[in-house]
Design a protein that fits this description.
Radius of gyration: 11 Å
Largest sheet: none
Helix content: over 70%
Strand content: under 5%
Distance between the termini: 31 Å
Number of helices: 5
Number of strands: 0
Shape: globular
Structural class: mainly alpha
Oligomer: single chain
Length: 69
């Protein structure tokens, strides 16, 4: 579980940098859209990809989930 937690922090950091947000904004957005659960569930596949893919994947998921609200 420690590796998954570190990876979640990594995802927050790269998303934050890519979208010019602060940590609080990213966590609010991630929690609102269920991204931490997604990252934990898909850790096995996600941690083997590059940062660009991770950012695009998360951004797409956020966009999809925000449109359902």
């Amino acid at each position: 579980m420690e590796n998954v937690t570190k990876f979640l922090v990594y995802c927050v950091e790269i998303y934050k940098t890519a979208h010019k947000l602060n940590g609080r904004q990213v966590m609010q957005l991630f929690n609102q859209c269920g991204i931490p659960d997604y990252i934990v569930k898909c850790y096995g596949a996600l941690h083997t990809t590059g940062p660009e893919y991770i950012i695009e994947d998360i951004a797409g998921l956020i966009k999809e989930r925000q449109h359902k609200e």
